[in-house]
Amino acid sequence: MPTNVYTKLNTGAIMPLIGLGTWKSQPGQVEHAVEIALRNGYKHIDTAAGYDNEKQVGEGIKASGVPRSEIFLTTKLNNIDHRDVLGALNKSLELLNTDYVDLYLLHWPAPMTKDWKADKSLNWIDTWKEMERVYRAHPTKVKAIGISNVSAAYLEDLLKVATVVPAVNQIERHPSCPGDDTLAACAKAGIVVTAYSPLGSDNSPLLTNDVVLRLAKKYDITPANVLISFQANTPNVNVVPKSVTRERIIDNLKVVDLTEEELAELKTINETAHFRACPPTWTGWGNLGFTD
């Protein structure tokens, strides 16, 4: 199956196939990673208020010299800010030193108090309704809205009441967590999926998996390239691999065409080696509809 070149959102906007993820990328490193990525062909930068690095991401964008109009920029509403969507958006814009974001995601369907406890007095779907209001009222500040870490079951509930269909659902996705039910639900609703942690996060066993290593040898690429290509060969999916190392940032842009059989073989890894790098239970809201 040929690799995707880009994904098209339900707003009509074009979202690049590969972006730079910045989860766990620390100040002092992340600004340089962003600058390197943009100077070497990346067009999408993904960050979040919860990563505590928006200011440095903005500095990296400025240092790159790449015009803002040529960059697709994503950030996310923090769990502790569900009661103040507009205020949180404005704070992110200030830190990023930009007038707008191309995509604003509800980071988790899990409202939390300022001391990071589950806020059971607030329904995340009401937060989405406020995001819809902000999106309509401030089209110069936010070009599209979406969700993140939303399971197929939670998405079904949201779509019953949503007046704006999310443009994107960003989820953990890799061969040990393929998320086929969520992918199918998003495709049916016209929602693009962004895959985070495509390598399985830090020190991932996927990088030494026999299937991955064999395909890497066949195509003369790194195991990371195989795992990124797994996303790039899946319809309706884009991907945000994370690195702060110059060589890896540049190398992560390399994708190859995988056959249907190879994609299926990669998915079989999940049968014996399933894991999540970021289980949803940390939020205090249980499994958030992810049955695995």
Layout: helices, strands, pairs:
Elements: E1 6-8, E2 14-16, E3 20-21, H1 30-39, E4 44-46, H2 54-64, E5 72-77, H3 85-96, E6 103-106, H4 124-137, E7 145-148, H5 152-159, E8 168-172, H6 180-189, E9 192-196, H7 210-219, H8 223-232, E10 237-239, H9 246-251, H10 260-267, H11 269-272
Parallel strand pairs: 3-4, 4-5, 5-6, 6-7, 7-8, 8-9, 9-10
Antiparallel strand pairs: 1-2
Helix pairs in contact: 1-2, 2-3, 5-6, 7-8
Q: Percent of residues in helical segments?
A: 25-40%
Shape: globular
Beta-strand content bin: 5-15%
Radius of gyration: 18 Å
Largest sheet descriptor: 8 strands, parallel
Order of helices and strands: EEEHEHEHEHEHEHEHHEHHH
The parts where pLDDT drops under 50 for at least 5 residues are: none
SSE class: alpha/beta
Main sheet strand line-up: 3-4-5-6-7-8-9-10
Q: How many H/I helical runs?
A: 11
Q: State the end-to-end CA separation.
A: 28 Å
Number of strands: 10
Mean pLDDT: 96
Based on the model shown, name its key terms.
292 residues, 8-stranded parallel sheet, globular
Structure, explained:
The chain is α/β, with parallel strands linked by helices and 292 residues long. It contains 11 helices and 10 strands. It has an 8-stranded parallel beta sheet.
